[in-house]
TrEMBL record:
GO MF annotations in UniProt: kinase activity
Coiled-coil intervals, chain numbering: none
Entry-linked Pfam families: CoaE
Listed EC numbers: 2.7.1.24
Binding site for ATP: 12-17
Compartment annotation: Cytoplasm
UniProt xrefs under InterPro entries: Depp_CoAkinase, P-loop_NTPase
Record protein name field: Dephospho-CoA kinase
Organism ancestry: Bacteria, Pseudomonadati, Pseudomonadota, Gammaproteobacteria, Kangiellales
Annotated keywords: ATP-binding, Coenzyme A biosynthesis, Cytoplasm, Kinase, Nucleotide-binding, Transferase
Family: Belongs to the CoaE family.
Keyword Cytoplasm: yes
PROSITE patterns: DPCK
Amino acid sequence: MTLHFVLTGGVASGKSAVSRFFAELGVRVIDADIVAREVVELGSEGLQAITQYFGEDVLLDDGSLDRKALRDIVFSDDSKRHWLNQLLHPMIRDKMLQARSAAESCGEPYTISVIPLYFETIHGTDEAQNYQRVLVVDADEGKQLSRLMQRDDTDIHRAKALMVSQASRSERLSIADDVIANNSDLQSLKQQVINLDKHYRELARS
């Protein structure tokens, strides 16, 4: 039996680094953000629907999606963000389900599904039953804020607004089966992943 685990955490908490380390250990990583880009790539039904709703202002010169322009529009408009979520979430769920099914067909011990907004969108719903454990990547909010400002080259006010728009640190930790602390260096982070990988493979065997 293939087990399916969620990897989640706040913005700039270190989810990408953790998922990369799992992938290096041979684990199938199913990243919701990557899948979200795939369902709106050039020529997709998702991109066509977005263009019809928002207009061509959300397109780049080559016809692909201008993700920043779209993000700026929905960031301050709840109704448009709701419409976008209603369009994309089912598409993303279907592709992630296909990836989990492929892992089961191959007899893989477990998968990691990276879902940044798991608490906000899936926790407490029927869909949560698709996953056996929740792994939270946790970081001190000060470190998270500085990493976000550096990563996005943004000011402190916008960075704080983005953090506040997500579930709080305590809310994410309240649903965690496992926690990886990302307050040190990459070597410490990698060792925590190695330890969890051993634990997860043992769970799959049992």
